Amino acid sequence: MPDQAEHIHPIALIGVPVDAHSSFLRGCALGPAAIRSAIRAESSNSYAENGVDTARDGLVLDLGDLPVGNRGHDHPLIQDAAAEQYRHGRKVIALGGDHAVTFPLVAAMAGFHPGANLLHFDAHGDLYDSYDGDPLSHASPFARIMESGLVANLVQVGIRTLNPHQKAQAERFGVHQFSARNFAGAIKRLGAGPTYISIDLDGLDPAYAPGVSHHEPGGLTVREVIDLIDAVPGPIIGADVVELNPTRDINGMTAMVAAKLVKELIGRMATA
Description:
Layout lengths: L10 E6 L14 H9 L20 E6 L9 H13 L3 E6 L5 H9 L6 E5 L19 H7 L5 E7 L4 H10 L2 E4 L15 E6 L21 H10 L4 E7 L10 H18 L2
Parallel strand pairs: 1-2, 1-3, 3-8, 4-5, 4-7, 5-6, 7-8
Helix pairs in contact: 1-7, 2-3, 3-4, 6-7
């Protein structure tokens, strides 16, 4: 358990309520509010598993939700808002929103942490060159990230919908992909340097996270995701938790999973 008197790295929490680039269902714009409500739920407390009190004064600066228009033109606003926090020496956790938000968030991070690693949890590779004619689709952010050279290394875990196009894209960009069936060795593919983590909640099995637009059985457990986060060798300097669709949730259980992951990210980011 960390000494609570040691230096704590400040973290900015930013809500990004957009789903204009979703390909199947809308509803992820409601995600940030649902995650915040779950974080405050009286059924749990504010401590991460490593002993960090995520509600400690000065640790997390909740900036609320960005004033997005949610018409598909919000990327510059998202990137600028995240970059401003990195400029002030803070780490960033973003609450989505659909997965399209990861492109501008990583672009902001890369301006201050060039050559970082990117660890991505998802059922899907999200490497489409374009999806339904939309190059900024939530099915395409990692193609935009890799072709822009924003990270040195992309490791994807939980993939279980790989088709020929996304396989070719992964080979083109040198992506390390690990299925939900076999992800041993995934962490070894990360370098020791700074790491950004992107968590699409449909990377988890729908038994744990039913409140997503794209149910894909056979996924990861909550414990597996937390253990992989804890095993990241370098400092975690940014993260997003995306694709919560509260209109599909059951008793708020996916929102609670998202809140748990946010708290564990805060705990891990706070001390390294």
